[in-house]
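User: Sequence for Ribosomal protein uS12 methylthiotransferase RimO below. C-alpha cells please.
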Amino acid sequence: MESNTYIAPAPQKIPKVAFASLGCPKALTDSELILTQLRAEGYETSKTFAGADLVIVNTCGFIDDAVKESLDTIGEALAENGKVIVTGCLGAKGSDGNADAGSLVREMHPSVLAVTGPHATQEVMDAVHTHVPKPHDPFVDLVPAYGIKLTPKHYAYLKISEGCNHRCSFCIIPSMRGDLVSRPIGDVLNEARALFESGVKELLVISQDTSAYGVDVKYRTGFWDGKPVKTRMFDLVAKLGELAKAHGAWVRLHYVYPYPHVDEVLPLMAEGLILPYLDVPLQHAHPDVLKRMKRPANGEKNMERIARWRETCPDIVIRSTFIAGFPGETEAEFQYLLDFMQEARIDRAGCFAYSPVDGATANALEGALPDEVREERRARFMAIAEQVSVEKLRSRIGATMQVLVDSAPALGRKGGVGRSYADAPEIDGTVRLLPPQKASKTLKVGEFTKAKIVAAEGHDLIAMPV
Ligand code: SF4
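Assistant: C-alpha cells for Ribosomal protein uS12 methylthiotransferase RimO:
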C-alpha cells in the first residue's frame, strides 16, 4: 500500500491584477514593491483593465494635471473593470473641507474598494486579499488548500468536529480537547469537494461523536454554494453522498452513536449514496455497565435499533468496539454482553480488556477486576466475535463485490489488495485480489474493480477480479 503520499491540488484559476502606475520615480518604486509582492504570492498581471480580476491605481497628487490624470485613470478602471484599489500620493489627500486622507478620491469615485497613501505595500496587499483571495501556490505555501494528507491519495479522513460533550468515565478526551466544536458545514463540504476533485475515492468521516454534529451551534443554518444547509448530521451526510456520487466515490461514517436520528441516515445507505457501513462504538450492552461508563445513548434500545437498521438496509455492516472487565462488571453483566453479541451479530467487533487511563473518573469506581479476569473475558468475547465474523465472511463467497484497490504491484499482474464497502482502511480486513485471469485486465491503486469472492481467510476475503 502506498503511504504518506502528497496529493497534487486540483488546478485552479490564477487571479489577475492590472496595475496603473502614475507619478514620479518614488511612486514607481512603490509600484514595483507591490507588483513584486503580487507575483511572489502567485497573482498574475493583466495588461488590460477589462481582463483583470481587480485593478490597482498608484496615483500622483503633485500638481493639478497629475491629480486630473490620476482621477481619470481611476474612472477608466472603474468603468472597464469595476474593482479598483487606489494607492499613492493622491490617496493621502483630503478634499476641500475634509482633511481626512483619501476623502478626495472617495468623493470623486465613491465605488473604489480601498484607498491608501504612498509606501503602503502591506495595506494594498491586505485590500487585494480581501477582494481577490490569494491563489494557492504549492511551491510557496506549505499547506495545500485542503491540508496535508498522510493517507494514500485515494482515501482521506474528513474531520467534522473536535471535542466532545460527553463525559464517559473511562475517557479523558474531553479534558484534553474540550467540548464539541462543530466545523462550519460550508467549510466541511468545501474540503470534501476539494478532496474528491483531487482524486480521493473514499472519504472517511471522523470526529469524537459524529451523531452530535451541530449540537453545539444548535443546528444553525450555514451556507454552501450559496444555498442554506443545516449544520446537522443528516444534512451533512446527504450532501456528502451527492458529492461522492458525482465523483464515483465512497463515503464511510465513523464514531456514530446510536441516537434515534441516526435512523434517518439509513435510507441514504439503502439508496447507495453513502456506504452501508456504520462504525458505532457501543463499548457494552448491559444498561447498568453503560450507566457506570456514562456512555452517550445509554438509554437506547440498541438491539432493536440494530434490527431496524438491518430491515431498512439489509446490506449494512456494523463495526463496534467493546470493553470487557470494566470496574464492577459482574459475570451476569458480562454474559449479557456475550448474549448481545450473539444476537446482534456485529460484523466487525473489537474488544479491549479494561485498562485504567490516568485522570479518568472510572478509576475511582469500586469493584476493579483483576487483570486475569479482564483478559479472560476479552478472550471469551473475541471467540464469539470471530465466529460471527467467519460466518459473515463465508456467506459472501460466490458474491461479486466492488473493491477499491489499495495495492497492485505490476498493474495487478500478480494480484493485489483492496477493500470492499465492508472494510474500513487500517482497522478491518481486506480483499486479497488474485492475479486476473484475463490478460487485458489490470488493477490500479485508487481505482475500483469488481471481484468475485472465492474464499474467506481470517478477517479477509479472497477474490478474483472480473
Ligand atoms: S469516549 Fe465518551 S467522552 Fe470520550 S470522546 Fe467518546 S463519547 Fe466523548
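Residues 371-394 form the longest helix (24 residues).
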